[in-house]
Every structure is written in structure tokens, then in C-alpha cells.
Amino acid sequence: MDLGIAGKVALVSGGSRGVGRKAAELFAADGCKVAVVARGKEALDEAVAAIRANGGEAIGVAADLTVEADVLRAVAETTEAFGPPDIVVSNVHGPGPASFDDLTDENLVDAFRRMTISLVYIARACLPHMKEQGWGRLVNVGSGAAKEPPAGLRHMLANCTRAAAVALNKSMANELGKFGITVNTVATGWIGTERMHEYVNKVAAERSIAPEQVLGTVTADIPAGRVGRPEEEASLVVYLASDLGGYINGEFINVDGGSHRSAF
């Protein structure tokens, strides 16, 4: 299947691990020039080397996309190497666990900056080029918890600020569609990334049980009976960024094995 994105410039944040890394690899395999953006240089260098080893074009940019100066530098370095980004995948690390009693002005502002303001920063930097050429793709790797916060998990900071990000993306889609720009959210469920396994191990240690027991409880609630593979979510990210995905706009799409309870 020709996705029509060969030669496009894709900037993928959080691209050194998990779903972000797999998306970066798939973009490169489809002929995109890829800027992999992440905070940790060692993992970043490894991701870029893997793409190049498979014949892809990629650069790495060590940057924190919750800091506007870093965003501007990442876009500038991408533009210098390949040209301005045509495709942007926003995949920023979420805030830590918190219940209501843990909320403070400071951690709420930090969470909002991570989950929502970071999207404004990267869009503000990349939209002028996208508007000028009449084509652009903004894909946010979010979470199904933005719509259906799970009980029993202390993720109040992430849940409420991710929901704000979804509303931002939908509002942007309404404004930007006339320029040939789409804005969509991919809602992550339980995906078998390194970060997910770190979380499972942490919960297992807190409860003094085996990680397999934690995973068993998780998968028992998933109709598919398993956690997802990073490439299963990453392939949707790439499709939404393609020419063929051009009529999908303003959507919130779950990738969760059917665990989302609502029919809509």
C-alpha cells in the first residue's frame, strides 16, 4: 500500500522508545525523512542508528518539548537537515501518579504543560509551513483514560490534562481542515512497551506479587486477552499521517484491544 508520504519530513517526539520509536521506524520505511526527538541522548542515538542501519534517513534531536525554546530548536535542526516538518507526532511523557489529595497548583501546571501546552508549542512552530503548502498532519499519542478514566489507578493528573489535549486537538481540527491539515489523537491502551513493563514491575513490587499476576489482572479485562504490540499502535499513527488518512480529522481513536467500554 502506497501511503503517499515518501519524501515527507516527519518529526516524532518520544521517538527513542516504545510506540514513538516504532512509528519513527515505520515512517522511515515508508520513505520519510525522520527527526527523532527525545530527552535521553543514549536511547536517541540508538534509535537513529537502527533506522539508518535499515536504509532510512534520520537525525536525532535531544530536546524537551515541554520547553518552548527546545521545541523551536528541534524544528530548526529538523529544517536544516531535511526541510520543515510536514508531519508531527506528539508523544510526551505523562506526569506521575496522583490522587485528588496529591494535587497541587505546581503539579497541575506541570501536567498541563506536558500534556497540552507542549502541543501548542509544536503546532505553533510547524503550522506556518503546513498552511503555506496546503498539507500537514498532527498526530497526538494520547490515552484512552482521557475519555474513560480507569478506577483504581492514581492517574488524576494525566487523565484531566489529557482530556484537555483531546479538546484542543478537536478544536484545531475544526480550524485547520480548510488548509489540508488534519489533527487526530491516538488513544493508547495497554501496549507492551518498556515503560509499561516498568509500571507493571512497580505495581507488583508495591503489592508484593509477581509481575505476571499484575499482567493477568490487566489482560482479564481486555477482550483481546493480551496487551498490544507497539507496532499495532504505531501503524495507526503512520496511517493517520498519510495521504490515505486525509479524510480522518478531529478523531479520538482507541487502540486498546476492545477494553474501552463505550460503544461510541
TrEMBL record:
Belongs to the short-chain dehydrogenases/reductases (SDR) family. Keywords: Cell wall, Oxidoreductase, Secreted. It catalyses: a (3R)-hydroxyacyl-[ACP] + NADP(+) = a 3-oxoacyl-[ACP] + NADPH + H(+). It is found in: Secreted, Cell wall. InterPro entries: NAD(P)-bd_dom_sf (IPR036291), SDR (IPR050259), SDR_fam (IPR002347). The keyword Magnesium does not apply. It comes from Mycobacterium arosiense ATCC BAA-1401 = DSM 45069. PANTHER family: 3-OXOACYL-(ACYL-CARRIER-PROTEIN) REDUCTASE, NADPH-DEPENDENT REDUCTASE BACG. The lineage of its organism: Bacteria, Bacillati, Actinomycetota, Actinomycetes, Mycobacteriales. It comes from the Bacteria. This is 3-oxoacyl-[acyl-carrier-protein] reductase MabA. GO terms for molecular function: 3-oxoacyl-[acyl-carrier-protein] reductase (NADPH) activity. It holds the Pfam family adh_short_C2. The keyword Metal-binding does not apply.
